[in-house]
Design goal:
By secondary structure, this protein is mainly α. The protein has 9 helices and no strands. The longest helix is centred in the middle third of the chain and has 32 residues, at about 90-120. The mean pLDDT is about 90.
Length: about 220
Amino acid sequence: MSDLVQTVLIYALPVIFAITLHEAAHGYAALRLGDNTASVLGRVTLNPFPHIDLVGTILLPLLLYFSTSGAFLFGYAKPVPVRFDRLRHPKRDMVWVALAGPGANLFQALLWGVLFYVLSGSGVTERFFIEMCKAGMLTNVVMFVFNLFPLPPLDGGRILVGVLPWRQAVLVSRVEPWGFFIVMGLVLTGLISAWWMQPLMGLTFDFLKLTLSPLAAVLR
């Protein structure tokens, strides 16, 4: 139990930042592209509280984490409201709004990696901070890859709708009411992990390692 509590404390800050900046990025992109809905509702902010869903962000992840001893974890934040019809170029701009969230997670993974190398290069050996950096990278890579899965209502699904021709885009968009349940089914059967998460997470970590290699060499 003490190990689980320590792990929760290590992951708490990275998870809060990952969720908050992901959602705020969606709202900020929408604002720059013509829709101020999220801004008016106070969702273009680094304050985590407007983005937190009591059940999806706190209770569900904690319940799953403790009940499975960390083997399975899932959660969600309040979706940022976007009126795609208010965007200057709705179909095209939908792609940029959707990309903003995963993009924020990839950027955070890079920053946590920078912090990891800076702490290590400075001789910091405190396990809590080193593990928090690793948790920050892992959390954001998971969110980056998972949200790019090409099925609405995930960001990857909205990107797919935005880049497909109109007829195909309409067909894909019709899946959205059942998309969450389809994704959960794929998660529970392990298919999304084996066919999507693991391969793309490996590629993402390879990209981060390559990008951070100059810094690692300097601080070595």
